[in-house]
Write a structure and sequence with these properties.
Layout lengths: L1 H22 L3 E9 L2 E8 L7 H16 L5 E4 L4
Parallel strand pairs: 2-3
Antiparallel strand pairs: 1-2
Helix pairs in contact: 1-2
Length: 81
């Protein structure tokens, strides 16, 4: 759907702005998917084992995406099984 494509481009743009902060702490993230208001990402590097992961995910990444992309309602960290 074209609308979803625009939303995904905006999500990726915002994630690219967040990435340098994560990189400075030895971490990173990977965009996985967007569907029905849910953004799935994978936290990488130092972020995977960080004690502040939940705070970074919800209070940082999710808060920014919800604020700037009205269609986003939640961000989830996808962990490989």
């Amino acid at each position: 759907m074209e609308k979803d494509k625009d939303i995904i481009e905006e999500i990726k743009r915002i994630l690219d702005k967040i990435r340098p902060y994560l990189n400075s702490e030895g971490g990173d993230l990977e965009f996985i998917s967007y569907e029905d208001g849910i953004v799935n990402i994978r936290m990488l590097g130092a972020c995977m084992d960080c004690g502040a992961l939940d705070s970074t995910l919800k209070d940082g990444i999710e808060a920014l995406l919800v604020e700037y992309v009205p269609e986003v309602i939640e961000v989830r960290n996808i962990i490989d099984q």
